[in-house]
TrEMBL record:
The keyword Ubl conjugation does not apply. Belongs to the glycosyl hydrolase 10 (cellulase F) family. The lineage of its organism: Eukaryota, Fungi, Dikarya, Ascomycota, Pezizomycotina. It comes from the Eukaryota. It holds the Pfam family Glyco_hydro_10. InterPro entries: GH (IPR017853), GH10 (IPR044846), GH10_dom (IPR001000). Keywords: Carbohydrate metabolism, Glycosidase, Hydrolase, Polysaccharide degradation, Secreted, Xylan degradation. Its EC number is 3.2.1.8. It catalyses: Endohydrolysis of (1->4)-beta-D-xylosidic linkages in xylans. This is Beta-xylanase.
């Protein structure tokens, strides 16, 4: 049977992909699905390209964890969304505990982007250049970047990314909670408009799409939030789709989850400039959800026994009909 990647391409998307974490690469059953082009024609490293692993000491670069994901995905012919250059989380201690001036931190940022972009030259369909910079109320997150550099750290990151990534790499701003028109998604639209006026490079906005059964945005809401950005000429993608359930799971909740998955994917398929969907892992035992939200889980398309769940078939059916 055709996999989700095959079906997504037929439905007009560039890809259907998954995040992959390093901790599970020794599981052959897992890797046989993750690096199967027919199922997933795109991969995002869930952790391996983040700052704490890539630059563990200042100006000392170690690409081991990134390569563990990137290399097999290149062998499989998959696209990659590379993740990420700048975030407030998973920073190395030398950086987060440093006492930086604005000039020094900007040069640390430029040096990091320069090295990582150069190392992965030509390997990334897209880079998440800046991840999760906004609060839900539309203000900027108070983190080391804002406090040391000021709000212009975001445009510096995008300019560095354009300068050092290979030509054609799509540069994304990526965030959660922006799958409805709300203070946060509108603040990001304002930023994109401002970038457009001033020539700051940006190609796309990633809607993470970490959803919860019973509280997820509707198809119409996801369409409307994407149009904040597609209306300005940018592309969009659902970059981290998962749909968590309050445990214990049961057939009703699993059915509701299947609907949320299918409707979310449909909201990308129907949006001309939405290029693809990435699930934030496909296998329940490696999902980030239970660690962060105790009592919640079963958010993925495959259960712990590697059996495809109703959500898988709902997505496949929707893609087949699209
Ligand atoms: O590196 C250590 C390893 O040495 C140790 O053996 C292992 C034992 O638990 O922990 C490892 O670190 C964990 C890391 O993932 C790598 O597996 C951290 O404890 C854990 O907190 C970290 O979680 C990641 C999380 O980002 C950090 O905030 C998740 O796997 C990852 O899926 C998640 O991804 C984020 C996206 O980047 C941005 N959007 C939200 C999304 C979900 O939180």
């Amino acid at each position: 049977a055709p996999g989700l990647g095959d079906l997504a391409k037929k439905a007009g998307l560039k890809y259907f992909g998954t995040a992959v974490d390093n901790v599970v690469l020794d599981n052959e059953k897992y890797t046989s699905i993750a690096f199967n082009y027919s199922e997933f024609n795109q991969i995002t490293p869930a952790n391996g390209q983040k700052w704490m692993y890539i630059e563990p000491s200042r100006n000392v670069f170690n690409y081991t964890l990134g390569d563990q994901i990137v290399d097999p995905s290149k062998d499989a012919g998959q696209l990659r969304r590379c993740h990420n250059f700048l975030w407030h989380n998973q920073l190395p201690d030398w950086l987060s505990h440093g006492n930086w001036t604005k000039t020094a931190l900007l040069s640390v940022l430029e040096n990091h982007i320069k090295h990582e972009a150069d190392y992965y030259w030509g390997d990334c369909y897209a880079w998440d250049v800046v991840n999760e910079a906004f609060n839900d109320d539309g203000t900027l997150r108070q983190d080391i970047w804002l406090q040391t550099i000021g709000p212009e750290y975001i445009e510096h990151a995008f300019r560095f990314a354009r300068k050092y990534t290979s030509p054609g790499t799509k540069l994304y701003y990526n965030d959660y909670g922006i799958e409805r028109v709300n203070n946060k998604s509108v603040a990001i639209q304002q930023m994109v408009k401002d970038f457009g006026k001033r020539g700051v490079p940006i190609d796309g906005v990633g809607l993470q799409a970490h959803f919860t059964v019973g509280r997820s945005p509707s198809y119409t809401e996801i369409r409307a939030s994407q149009q904040l950005y597609t209306g300005l000429g940018l592309e969009t993608a659902l970059t981290e789709l998962d749909v968590r359930i309050e445990l214990p799971d049961n057939a009703n909740k699993t059915a509701a989850q299947a609907t949320v998955y299918a409707e979310s994917v449909r909201a990308c398929v129907d949006e001309k400039r939405c290029v693809g969907v990435t699930v934030w892992d496909f296998w329940d035992p490696v999902s980030w959800v239970p660690d962060t939200f105790p009592g919640w889980g079963d958010a993925c398309l495959w259960d712990e026994g590697f059996v495809r769940k109703p959500a898988y078939y709902a997505v496949a059916d929707m893609l087949r009909k699209a």
